[in-house]
Amino acid sequence: MFDAPIILMTTFAVLLLLGVPIGICIAISSLLTIFLALPPDIAMFTVAQRMFSSLDSFTLLAVPFFILSGVIMNMGGIAMRLVNFAKLITGRIPGSLSHTNIGGNMLFGAISGSAIAASTSIGGVMVPMSVRDGYDRAFAAAVNIASAPTGMLIPPTTAFILYALASGGTSVAALFAGGLVSGVLWGLGCMAVTFVIARRRGYRSKQQIEKGTALRVIWQALPSLCLIVVVVGGIVGGVFTAIEGSAVAVVYTAFLTIVVYRTVKFAHMQAILKQTLILTGIIMFLLATSSAMSFAMSITGLPAMIRDFILGVSENPLIVLLIITALLLVIGTFMDIGPAILIFTPILLPIATNLGVHPVHFGIFMVYNLCIGTITPPVGSGLFVGASVAGIRVEKALLPLLPYYLVIIAVLLLITLVPNTTLFLPRAMGLI
Amino acid sequence: MNLVRKPIDLLIFWVCSLWLLVMVGAACWQIISRFYFSSPAGVTEEFLRFSLVWLSMIGLAYVAGQRKHVAFTLLVDGTPKHWRRYWEIMIELTFLAFAVYVLIIGGLKAVNMTMMQLSPALRLPMGYVYLAMPISGGLLAFYSLLNCIQLFLKHISPAPHMEEPSQDV
Amino acid sequence: NTLTMAYAQNSQPVIDALHLLADLIEEKTDGEVTVNIYPDSQLGGERELVELMQAGAVDITKVSAGLMDSFSSIYGVFSMPYLFDDTEHFYRVMDDPEIVGPVFESTADQGFVAMGYYDSGSRNFYMRNQPVQTVEDLEGKRIRVMQSETAIEMMQLLGAIPVAMGQSEVYTSIQQGILDGAENNEFAITVARHGEVAKHYSYDMHTRIPDIVLIGTSTLESLTEEQRVAVEEAMAESIEFQKEAWSEAVAEARQQSEEEFGVTFYDVDLEPFQEAVQPMYEDLRSRPAHFELYEQIISVSEQ
Ligand code: NA
Ligand code: NA
Q1: How far is CA C231 from CA A160, B16, C21, in A?
Q2: Which of A2, A277, C90, C251 measures 20 to 30 Å from C270, CA to CA?
């Protein structure tokens, strides 16, 4: 019954272990799976079409733009000034830079609604800075990867809007309120893990910044801090969207480093652009081919198989929810979050509501689940992007990610088994 | 061999870089125009989306030329350098297969089919936008063949992934 | 013979009508032709589905006439503002094979034709702060439009600032104030929950853009004469079913909007709106085929 997923996963795993680049592994295994359902020439066309339509996206513009502004910030010393400022604020808390990264991802992810935008813009700055401060690069990457999806849970976020639509009109405001709780819990969980690991490894600021230099640190960071004011303020104030904000960030950082600080010279431009181009090429290749995988799963009939499978298993709501959890974790592995919500909500929601699960609870549960899928191997956009901006190979991030996976899953079990965790806030606000 | 590679590298690099800067400008223009003029914002939005397709597709071929695409190399890292060289040639051939079957054959089918389909805002035949696929495929095929030849001639190292790309400058 | 039917995101009446169409095709061909359905964007959005149809991977799909403009510009006439007087006029036009027949056949050289249409209601303005009751109320307001030349031009002539963006961004853009309002049918208020952030809905009924049901030309050729007749009959029955289902669902949505979301509905005097967009009809004269279709459409108007 599950021959299509088996072919897909087997060819993918074999190619991956043989050292074939991940984008090619995804494309070829998807192509072979699509061969099961369509003639070869049409299958080749559909993979090309899928890659094309996933790149034909206004949201993804944030990727090259935030990468560019991040590289400029790193090379031009903006990042350094911001980090000194962050150190001043967070002081000698173990892993203060990592906490800053998590907080940054939550804040920026909240505003932009894009985990990829958050992990490229915040992580692109914080990871190199953490490394310079003596943190292990893989650990710094893991912190960034693990906390990036919080922005897809903390409102405003497209995922809940898609869910509201696909579920036939669940309250967006209620989903936002409940999503806020789940996203904050996810972020706090990551901070707790970071605290423990950082204290054990002794990741603390080496020197306490003295009173006298504190003012200088603030003064130096001021123009850089204005970047945050401009970008975040512009988005919140309705001047531009988060995606357009990425272009504003490029212009602002370029202005600051070329004109104000004069740290970026013409000779640096080539290096900046080259690094941007290469990172963009790496990330977009993975995002484009991943989208072909979603199609491969649909055309071979996976959604219908999953529906039949769940209906045949159990009547106990708890067991059904746990089975759905397991399935969504797997689905999140080879499907983009948007299509997965549109395709699986109509299939899974009736099953859940029949068992007495509240649609708002189910929506939060489902989006949370799919968010996990974006940072788990073998395929995950958040994982790929986070590893790329940190400049490490994907497999190197996995070991330090392990404790984070555990705490994220623990929060998942909490919100699954205790519906009031996420439902109390929308209830208190009178939304449900 | 580098006489062939260098000019192509440089051409792609500068075209893509300038294009990226134009895209930044266009995105800013979109913000300004929405506030001060009632100009059809759909045009810049569409221009930016299509540019992203082209930039990404050409970019991925460029990255393949630099052999910087991410791979899981834990298992093959241990193989002797001699064998690794032939193994890397095999991997370059998977790029070639992908370029030919998906990007060139699949992409050209898409181009042919969508020449009569016009984009909503720019009224541009979608076939021209889809052209990014076969052109990227052509460049990718060129680079993977070049990498094969240079690997075989021992002009380039078989293990490009061994050193971490440096992030901090 | 098994046909592949695929559709993107849709409202319930359209989904029900498509499933009825599939059932009727099987029934009327005594099971000789079966239909395999891929629902809910499983195979992609509407543009991708048309391309899959051209490639031969999909046999039947349903897309908006707005998208069809990309494939055959004559469909663009259906997006013209204040074109239809009312639902009756709309049905009279769309059910008239002499008017829509040539339009439906116009994409035959691209590998597909239309075999029918579904009602997708009227599109109306809904606003965050103040209702639209006169053309002046739109002055300088940022309104989300679909990615379409016609929609953008209409909005400019009415004095508003058109903002083209994806449907999924509209909710938060209204909430944050990037948009002052949007325009769509009543389901945007209820199913997409825009009623949570926009409370003023004005029935100016500027467009009635039909949904179009497409079938591949090679699919049609693969059917026998009797099977083709059966498919046509099935289509006709599903169209009649959809009209009923649509008007019931819209009435329910309106009631729900008022009771659950506290949305106020306004009726507006249409004449000033119609006058404001007249330049678009003047421009239409330069495109003879389009203008002819327009004249045919207004010739069956009763007003
Ligand atoms: Na968000
Ligand atoms: Na995953």
Answers
A1: 38, 51, 8
A2: C251
Of B135, B159, B102, B126, nearest to B16 by C-alpha is B135
Ligand 2 centroid – CA A16 distance (Å): 14
Measure the CA–CA gap between A274 and A255, rounded to whole angstroms: 19
**Own/partner pairs for C166-173, CB < 8 Å, 24+ apart?**
C166/A58, C167/C192, C168/A158, C168/A161, C168/A162, C168/A165, C169/A158, C169/A241, C170/C144, C170/C194, C171/A156, C171/A161, C171/A172, C171/C196, C171/C197, C172/A113, C172/A156, C172/A158, C172/A161, C173/A241, C173/C144
Gap between the Cα atoms of C239 and C235, Å rounded: 6
Chain A, residues 371-390, CB within 8 A of chain B, namely: 384, 387-390
Could you tell me if A41 lies within 8 Å of chain B, comparing CB atoms? Answer: yes
User: Which is higher by pLDDT, A352 or A138?
Assistant: A138
Give the predicted TM-score (pTM) of the model: 0.87
Digit-coded pLDDT (tens) for A125-143:
888 888 888 889 999 999 9
* Residue A246 in contact with partner chain B when CB distance is under 8 A: yes
Least Cα separation, residue A430 to chain C (angstroms)? 13
Q: Please compute the mean of the pLDDT values over residues A315-321 and round it to a whole number.
A: 78
In chain C, residues 46-75 whose CB comes closer than 8 Å to chain B: 50-51, 54-55, 69-71, 73
CA distance B7 to chain A (A): 15
**Confidence at residue B33, expressed as pLDDT on a 0 to 100 scale:** 81
Q: Does A288 touch chain B (CB under 8 A)?
A: yes
- Pairing verdict, β C60-64 and C2-6: parallel
Q: Considering chain A, what percentage of its residues have pLDDT values greater than 70? A: 97
Domain ranges of chain B: 2-162
What digits encode the pLDDT tens for the residues A386-418? 998 898 888 889 999 999 999 999 999 999 889
Task: For residue A40, report the distance from its CA to the centre of ligand 2, in Å.
Answer: 27
- Name which residue leads in pLDDT, C175 or A113: C175
Question: Is some CB atom of chain C closer than 8 A to the CB atom of A299?
Answer: yes
Residues of chain C with pLDDT under 50: none
Helix (H) or strand (E) holding A23: helix A22-34
ipTM comes to 0.89
Ranges of chain B whose pLDDT falls below 70: 1, 37-41, 159-169
Q: Which ligand is nearest to the Cα of residue C172, counting in written order?
A: 1
| C218-238: pLDDT as tens digits | 999 999 999 999 999 999 999
Q: Of the candidates C147, A270, A21, A246, which has an alpha carbon nearest to the alpha carbon of residue B50?
A: C147
Q: Which residues pair with A152 in a beta bridge?
A: none
Nearest ligand, CA of residue A335? Answer: 2
Q: Which residues of A touch B98 (CB under 8 A)?
A: 24, 27-28
* Shortest Cα–Cα distance, C70 to chain B (Å): 5
Cβ contact, residue pair C71, B113, below 8 Å: no
CA of A11 to the centre of ligand 1 (A): 35
Cis before A400? omega within 30: no
Q: What integer pLDDT is reported at residue B161 of this predicted model?
A: 52
Rounded to the nearest angstrom, the minimum Cα separation between B16 and chain C is: 26
pLDDT of residue B168: 36
Which chains pack against B, by 3+ Cβ pairs within 8 A? A, C
Chains that contact C by 3+ CB pairs under 8 Å?
Answer: A, B
What does the angle CA C27 – CA C33 – CA C37 come to, to the nearest 5 degrees? 90
Collect all residues of chain C within an 8 Å Cβ-Cβ radius of residue B117.
50-51, 70-71, 110
In which order are the strands placed within the sheet that holds C161-164?
A: C161-164, C142-145, C181-184, C123-127, C200-207, C264-267
- Neighbouring residues of A215: CB distance < 8 A, sequence distance ≥ 6: none
Distance CA A52, CA C219 (A): 26
Of A350, A373, A367, A365, residue with least CA distance to A420: A365
